[in-house]
Amino acid sequence: MSTVVELRGITWNHTRGYLPLVATAQRFSELHPDVSITWQKRSLQEFADYPVERLTENFDLLVVDHPFMGYAANHPLLLPLDEHLPASFLADQAANSVGRSHESYSYGGHQWGLAIDAATPVSAYRPDLLKQIPQKWSDVLTLARRGLVAIPAIPVDSLMHFYMFCCALGEEPFSSGEYVISPDVGVAALSLLRELLSYCDPRCLERNPIATYEAMIAADQIAYCPCAYGYVNYARPEYARKPLRFGNLVKLDEKLLRSTLGGAGLVISAHCQQIEAALAYAQFVADPVTQRGLYFTSGGQPGHRQAWQDNTINQASDNFFLNTLATLDNAYLRPRYDGAIPLQDHAGLIVHRYLSEGGDPRTVLKEINSVFVTN
Asked: What structural domains does the chain harbor?
């Protein structure tokens, strides 16, 4: 009797994050009866915050956020995929990256993850409630004054929006090794974000992108969200009561906003004892045939460019992918150095407090820069 190889995986608790991995694991086991793969899930906040080293001790396969890569490169946590996967396969992944998604899992000379999921903040609206779509930031503010706008503004999302406005104002965060952003740009970015929040329901400060989209489809009040990490599920009529339509970002001073890259990567723990099976499964999930087929039909948001350009997928999602691809390709890649996660956690809290309570934005910037220096 043959021995069954068992692999355990951990991902995040949403249809987009969980069901496609369960489906691909089931199909992979049907194709490889000697392999059994079990996926568990954690909350979106734990997905962003939970220490990877704890997870790598208990799971073979992990879905992670790319800012962890710098830490992983300096600690023996993950399997360097470039030392195990065919160069031709990785070359295809790089050539078919959505924006800088594939690159985001490369750090310190190694490829640590496969970009099985691609995302960045994009716009979303209820087509049944909104006929004239904002083109400029001033249009967004006009809608917000009417109570029709929501934006996710928990700490991590608040920080990502801050980065977005910095880019729109002509300066990428962390482009100087001495501070996060220059004072004038930082103050302007914080002020733009706080002005929008002042017109929105205070509950925005407690919502992540998922909660924002759920609020948009649950009732008929919120017509527009200017920027939130895209979730194709909410564009699909079989999933959402009132499907959302997604698009690119508006212009600020005649320049398109540039949001901060997100998405999710599939990595393999350095503690994994069944490396061959784990590698084979990882290739199966990231393969373009799976990505534009089973991965999408099971509720996933693929990371392979062929899927984003696939006509069948776009027809099933009201052109979610084609309508937002330009924003993905233009997205800002946030820091991934060892220490980026503590910075993200602390700086997000500082920006969130300012949005909630107000204060002097220059003082806020000094606090953020202080966190940067210590991390």
From this structure: 5-119+262-324 (3.40.190.10), 121-260+339-374 (3.40.190.10)
